[in-house]
Recover the amino acids of this structure.
């Protein structure tokens, strides 16, 4: 390398977005959009809003560490409010384990 040539530094990792990160951000955005759609559907007759909001929440929780931390903190602070969610999670986890272990 000659003394007068400009040095090329490696790209800053904070400025480059990998495909996985873009996908993660897209899924978080989709989850938030689905939650908003569920809120709009909530006043309509029928149970349409709640399952839609739960689906959006699942998308956000699976792709955002900050949302997971907030969810766990809220679950510990208000256990009675989150007990139905915990019951469903435990049932699904037990079903998944039975399927994995051939039960």
């Amino acid at each position: 390398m000659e003394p007068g040539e400009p040095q090329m530094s490696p790209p800053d990792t904070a400025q480059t977005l990998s495909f996985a990160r873009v996908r993660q951000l897209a899924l978080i955005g989709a989850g938030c959009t689905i939650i908003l759609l569920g809120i709009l559907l909530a006043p309509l007759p029928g149970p349409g809003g709640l399952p839609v909001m739960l689906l959006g929440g699942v998308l956000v929780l699976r792709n955002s560490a900050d949302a997971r931390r907030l969810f766990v903190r809220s679950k510990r602070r208000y256990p009675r409010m989150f007990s139905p969610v915990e019951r469903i999670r435990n049932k699904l986890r037990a079903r998944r384990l039975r399927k994995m272990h051939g039960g």
